[in-house]
Amino acid sequence: MGEWLTHPALVAVGGGAGAVARFWVGRLVAEFQLRHGGVGFPWGTFAINVSGSALLGLLAAWCAGHPERRVWYVLLGTGVCGGFTTFSTFSIEALELIREERIGAALLYVLGSVAAGVAAAALAMRAGGARGE
């Protein structure tokens, strides 16, 4: 019964930390873009989603085959990475690119985000020692 009580609290704490990290990373990337050539592409969300995929891949590799680490996966994977990554923002930004008739940028963003996110997770899992691929 303890898991039913502690796991939601861990997700909430981790999600809050992940959301704050997302805010700051997005802000830092936006400020960098403004100083170095404009905003034209949602690089902040792209970077957040790819790095979040890599972090989750490392965590999944570390937790694989270790049930005693499940609590860490709940806190850091479901919580922090869940609060950090930005799929809903990604969806709106992709739609905005389409509405602006920037179809090439929209395709690059959608396909690049998915490909880079999957690649980052796979590389991170390998780096973390996951087997079976």
Give short descriptive properties of this protein.
single chain, 133 residues, mainly alpha, globular
Description:
- This protein has helices spanning 2-35, 43-63, 70-84, 87-99, 103-127.
- With 133 residues, it is mostly helical.
- It starts with a helix and ends in a 6-residue tail after the last helix.
- The mean pLDDT is 90.
Count of separate structural domains: 1
Strand content: under 5%
How many beta strands in the DSSP annotation?
Answer: 0
Number of helices: 5
Helix content: over 70%
What is the alpha-carbon Rg in Å? 17 Å
Low-confidence stretches: none
Shape: globular
Task: List SSEs in N-to-C order.
Answer: HHHHH
The computed structural class is mainly alpha
The major sheet is characterized as: none
Mean pLDDT: 90
How far the N terminus sits from the C terminus, by CA atoms, comes to 35 Å
How would the blueprint of this fold be written?
Blueprint: H1 2-35, H2 43-63, H3 70-84, H4 87-99, H5 103-127
Helix pairs in contact: 1-2, 1-3, 2-3, 2-5, 4-5
Short description:
This protein is mainly α and 133 residues long.
